[in-house]
Amino acid sequence: MTAALRFDPIRLPPECEKLRKEVRAFLAEEIGAGTFDPHKPNREDADAREFSRRVGQRGWLGMTWPKKYGGHERSFLERYVVTEEMRVANAPTRRFFVADRQSGPVLLKYAPEHIKMDILPRICRGEVCFSIGMSEPNSGSDLFAAKTKATKTDGGWLINGTKIWTSSAHIADYMIAIFRTSPPTKENRRHGLTQFLVDMKTPGIKVNPIGQITGQFEFNEVVFTDAFMPDDHVLGEIDGAWKQATSELAYERSGPERFLETYYVLTELVRAVGSKPDTRSAEGIGRLVAQLHTMRRMSVSVAGMLQAGKEPVVEASIVKDIGTVWEQQLPHRVRDLAAFVDPDASNHETLEKQLSFAIKTAPKLTIQGGTTEVLRGIIARGLGLR
Amino acid sequence: MAESDNIVAETAEKIFADLADAQTINSDKKGNWKAPLWKALSEAGLPLSWVPESCGGSGASLAEGFSVLSAAGRFAVAVPLAETMLAGWLLSLAKIASPEGPMTVAPASPKDRITLNADGTLSGRARDVPFAKEAKHIAVLAHGSSGLSIALVDAAGCGIEAGLNLASDPSDTVTLNNIQPVAIAPAPGQFNQSQLMLMGGVARSLQIAGSLESMLEVSVRYSNERVAFEKKISKFQAVQHNLARLAGESAAALAAATSAADAIANCKTFDDEVFLEAASAKIRCSEAAEKGSAIAHQVHGAIGFTIEHILHRYTLRALAWRDDFGSESYWAVELGKLVAARGADELWPLVASR
User: Fold this and answer.
1) For A31, A304, B216, B341, which has the most beta carbons within 10 A of its beta carbon?
2) Are the Cβ atoms of B276 and A315 closer than 8 angstroms?
3) Which domains does chain B have, with CATH numbers?
4) Nearest CB partner across the interface for B340, out of A275, A321, A382
5) Residue A350: C-alpha distances to residues A46, A259, A268, B341 (Å)
């Protein structure tokens, strides 16, 4: 058996609590000004573009990045607080969340200096939106089956093929994608893929919206036809994307967004049952709160270990596995309890609407960003089973 | 609470490794292992970890004592170590010195009440008191006309009706009929029975989390040894995913229990945030005990269902510990009531308070 799992009892330092107050005040202001409605989790009509810039002005984008790129050199735990407060308030983060969490760190590590100087400050100002081009029509969890081809040409590469399920591609300024630069080798089927920075304004890129069962159009098909990528848009080692894809996963997997996606239905249930719940409601709410508290403690613990320079890869995968399963089940458990709520409760209609949306959202939570099956495979490897 | 810095936990771990090996204990039908283990633990001062030196104990910190309980859970030891620690802690709150020998606490269930009578004697019944049959003394929390008192009682004077928990460890009914305590003093002003139950609940949470760590370890080991359909069963994806879920339950229990222990060890007042930590630990660890032990048994198949195999030492104890100091259902109701009373918009601030 490999080393024992660790979840140190990490506490957020005092500067986080000061920051939390600032974030809450900011969000209350935004809600007051009508930027978004915290009771409407679909966030469709929110003014996300201006919101993104104002979050940037507050210094809450690129929080952990070096100052020379527009970052703020603050801790992962501070970023954690901002992320969880935004998520709980149902703030419209879609224009900046991917860039801040994932794309920025990839650029920091692999982009040439002039590109870092160009793009990272704009992410920090909340001006640019990123998407991630991983899945293809015949390559989902099996990332290394990707076929979209990058062919070497003068000064760069020509891209041909199709990415799919690409969230926010229709509003994105850039995409970080993996393309096939060489065939896989017999010894290593993961060989031959390269990471690229894609400017979405490049001629030869067509974004086709795909409707989702929630009624939203958040993801897309992205078709590349002889789209030209200059050489300096290659990120990292040619043919070696597989070495780069796994290292940042701990950051991506264990954040508060991995268990708070449907949190709003729990708040609304507590409102609906009132201050003196019957035994069944109290028991149901108590269990859900205990599970939520435990998830958060696990997630904060991983954030603290990352801040301390450790690499809790298995722990992070566990957080995402049980966190996403939990947030997927939450609307159904709330529905169980809502059956006993007074239908004349003042927020009954809000709760019903939220439940309907959350139940439709739920199936994607254990698919996006690494399926439950993939995560359990990673955990099993960490346990020494594979 | 880094264990490498914790000499108390290391001492406990070493004693358990030497004298409480699961296989040895499981094969010892006469219980000959018990006396040497208890002697070694006592000589190391571990049962009175939480008793200050001025009260006859070894004066370890709460955090150090909690890590002893994690180790005790990993070895699923069936001696009244946690119980004596809790009793010593309770007595110390009233500055009552702890005697030598095994102790336990009463009541051990939130619904039982012991009464301090006007004549200074104690009356009442406490059910499911762990290891009462093996205890020399019982630390009692009693309700009197002027508030709560903490008392030290000679077990020999109590009516003790023997019972067994799921793991066949003593879980007895203790009846006090106008018992004269050996010592008695008022409980600290803010103290209440709920806090005693939650302290016991956190002790059990740590033990459950420890036993789940061992369940995971023995299950992974077994899956890498057992061959079926011409390969190790660890190579079957269905088995891998079951073990990944067991790891998740073990991780959740560990996180919840150590966080609650840390919260109690560092709190100034027993406020709503500490209540959330402690109640959540008991709830989530109990849920993990159910899910985790089911998987551990599933991986082992029939061999794990035999009395000869050590697996039941961990699974049955984890399941039994759910019942002590208030079950997960009990604490879920209490936590749910607290959350409802605070109101919907105060839920997130409570969860995000630390």
Assistant:
1) B216
2) no
3) 1-77 (no CATH), 103-190 (2.40.110.10), 193-352 (1.20.140.10)
4) A275
5) 18, 21, 8, 21
Residues from chain A that touch B259, judged by Cβ atoms under 8 A, are 7, 9, 297, 301
**Rounded to whole angstroms, how far apart are CA atoms A4 and A96?**
36
Enumerate the residues of chain A whose CB falls inside 8 A of the CB of residue B276. Answer: 289, 293
Provide the 8-state DSSP code for A184.
Answer: P
In angstroms, the CA B120 to CA B193 distance is 19
Give the span between the Cα atoms of B324 and A332, in whole angstroms.
Answer: 30
Q: Name the residue among A285, A297, A375 with its Cβ closest to that of B259.
A: A297
Answer whether B255 sits within 8 Å of A314, measured CB to CB: no
**A218 DSSP assignment:** -
Extended beta strands in chain B, E state? 103-106, 114-116, 122-130, 137-144, 147-154, 159-161, 171-179, 183-186, 227-228, 231-232
User: Which tokens hold the place of A251?
Assistant: 């950051």
- Decide if B248 and A322 are in contact by the 8 Å CB cutoff: yes
- What are the CA-CA distances from residue A269 to residues A85, A185, A316, B332 (Å)? 19, 54, 29, 16
Considering CB atoms only, which of A12, A284, A293 is closest to B351?
A293
Instruction: Select from A99, A144, A112, A100 the least CA-distant residue to A234.
Output: A112
Q: Which residue of B has its CA nearest to A321?
A: B248
- Per-residue exposure over A149-175, b if at least 16 CB sit within 10 Å of its own CB, e if not: ebeeeeebbbbbbbbbbbbbbbbbbbb
Residue in this structure with the two tokens 């308070």, named with its chain if needed: B353
* B window 175-214, beta carbon within 8 A of A: 213
DSSP state for residue A176 in the 8-state scheme: E
**What is the ipTM score, two decimals?**
0.97
Name the pairing type of β-strands B114-116 and B122-130: antiparallel
Query: Which residue of B lies nearest to A16 if distances are taken between CA atoms?
Result: B354
Residues 248-307 of B with CB under 8 A from A: 248, 250-252, 254-256, 258-259, 261-263, 276-277, 279-281, 283-284, 287
Residue A45 CB partners (closer than 8 Å, separation 6+) = none
Residue among B62, B145, B133 nearest B102 (CA) = B133
Instruction: Write out chain A's pLDDT in tens, 386 residues.
Output: 446 888 999 999 999 999 999 999 999 999 999 999 998 887 666 679 999 999 999 999 999 999 999 999 999 999 999 999 999 999 999 999 999 999 999 999 999 999 999 999 999 999 999 999 999 999 988 888 999 999 999 999 999 999 999 999 999 999 999 999 999 999 999 999 999 999 999 999 999 999 999 999 999 999 999 999 999 999 999 999 988 866 556 667 789 999 999 999 999 999 999 999 999 999 999 999 999 999 999 999 999 998 998 888 899 999 999 999 999 999 999 999 999 998 888 899 999 999 999 999 999 999 998 899 999 999 999 999 98
Tell me the count of A-B CB pairs closer than 8 A. 184
